[in-house]
Amino acid sequence: MGYVTGNVPKYKTPQEMEDKVVEYFKTCEPKLMTYEDSEGNEQPVMVKGEPYYKQEPPTKSGLALYLGFADRQSLYDYEKKKGFSCIIKRAKLALSEHHEKGLDKEKCTGHIFWLKCNGAKEPVNEWNDKAEEGVSDDRTLTLKIDWGTDDTAGK
Hints:
Elements: H1 14-27, E1 31-32, E2 34-36, E3 42-44, E4 46-47, E5 50-51, E6 53-54, H2 60-66, H3 73-79, H4 85-101, H5 109-119
Antiparallel strand pairs: 1-6, 2-3, 4-5
Helix pairs in contact: 3-4
């Protein structure tokens, strides 16, 4: 049995990929954590009097794996394909939205880091906190040295 070589498209139609992307994000929705009580009934796990929900955060790597890709590069490759570009862009936007929503949490450093790193690849990087100064080549520095007069010459 031989191996298929070359780039065989994983998804033949944009709709096929879009369905899989939607499915991935559904796996990342918060899930109510439950346990089975002594009578065999399912009960919600309570933390400080509130039901406890667990959420697996959406990630680029997670999306790539769920789509059946071997690496994240495949996401970028599909983004260049006609018909698939908008699907990948919307998926990346949903990832950014997840991290933007995390900015109001007490521990948001990871969200800030993700937005800075991934925002740097966007056409407009609104998440960069570095001040950048532009230096133009048309500046000229003139240095004038006044040596004074030689007052000792006549003495």
